[in-house]
Amino acid sequence: MEKLPIKKPNFIVLTLTPLLAVIFVPWYGLTVGFDAFEWGVFAFFMVATGLAITAGYHRLWSHRAYEAHWSLRLWHAVWGACAMQNSILHWCADHRQHHRFVDDNDRDPYSAPKGFFHSHMGWIIRKQNIYTDDFANVKDLQRDPVVLWQNKYYLALTVGTNVAVPLAIGWWHGAMWGTFLLAGLLRLVLNHHFTFFINSLAHMWGRQTYTDANTARDNGLIALLTYGEGYHNYHHLFQWDYRNGVRWWQFDPTKWVIRLCAWVGLATQLRQPPVVQIEKARLSMQLKLALQQLEHAPEPDAWRTRLEEAHRQFLAAIEEFNRFRQELRLAKEQFQEQFSRDRQEMKRRYAELKAELRHQRHAWRLLLAELSGTELTRA
């Protein structure tokens, strides 16, 4: 296969910065030392640039999962430039192309089937003809003055935030080079590769909780490094959800920040799919995985019947519960007087449906556990 030509600026940045960080950060730490202030600046830059990519470039601009006030968009635009992952227009054009043609080696810019290195950073280093620079798939973003401003002044913003600002803060603090090495150099390397893990590891390592139509995986460890972006299997099925970690216990600080911004009036129109759609997707994958185990189970036809019936009952309970919950919400909003008269009956019905849903969920989990036990016994 013919090798594509190398993009020299990208190659230099992605090879030189890690090398310099490996050499000079430990050397300075051992000979001079870093103080708490310098580590604090590093942490601030790390979080600001990371969230600019996740909450800004990704969920706001690429997927339009919510709307943001101009001041919040400006904040993400500046710190997104500091992340040095290209302008909003370029980044979002690539990402939308990825979602549209995921795993297609001819059309997905960072197709995971091409291997770890390609999806991690090889696609950035080598020139590809997968997309053009006319930004045909980001015409909506070209109506955003903040996006156009950042694209026009991207180089100046990148140099200023990565070099001038850390050096200025360090000079003011009296430790110019220490601050620059942490907040400028080390932070940049970590920010790059943590983001790149989404394109590489999150398509190779983890669970396919909601769909197996593509290689995307849910991985809690990657979520810890990427402000919640590691729940990538969910994201590829519900890409316009402002959340990636949809379960309450999943680590997704990006969704918490977006909620906080909504609370203070900086974000609006937070989008998310109906709960029933999410539950259906998860349940369907559980059924599919369970059916795949039947080759190891005795009486597979009987097991298939039990699984499909339990799946049907659980799904019916989910749909009925959510249907009633929507009716209850509508009653509260539009028929306050009637709702007041029927409050006790509606509360009783709600409790019944919730109990039935809990019962069906418990029965489903017991059935899956029994199937797994049967498989283990035969093994």
What features would you describe in this structure?
The structure is a single chain. Helix 1 (8-31) packs across helix 8, helix 2 (36-62) crosses helix 3 (70-82) and helix 2 (36-62) runs parallel beside helix 8. Residues 375-379 have low confidence and may be disordered. This protein is globular. Helix content is 68%, strand content 1%. It has 379 residues and is an all-alpha fold. It has two domains: 8-268, no CATH class; 275-378, Receptor-associated Protein, CATH 1.20.81. The longest helix is centred in the last third of the chain and has 36 residues, at 343-378. The protein has helices at residues 8-31, 36-62, 70-82, 88-100, 116-125, 145-152, 154-173, 176-199, 220-225, 232-237, 253-263, 275-292, 300-334, 336-341, 343-378, and strands at 67-68, 267-268. 36% of the residues are buried.
Topology, number of strands: 2
Global geometry: globular
- In terms of structural class, how would the helical and strand content be classed? mainly alpha
Number of domains: 2
Order of helical and strand elements: HHEHHHHHHHHHEHHHH
Biggest β-sheet strands, sense, barrel: 2 strands, antiparallel
Mean pLDDT: 89
Strand order in space, largest sheet: 1-2
Q: In DSSP terms, counting alpha (H) and pi (I) runs of 4 or more, how many helices?
A: 15
The residue fraction in helices comes out at 55-70%
Low-confidence stretches: 375-379
Taking all Cα atoms into account, the compactness measure Rg is 25 Å
Distance between the termini: 44 Å
Strand content: under 5%
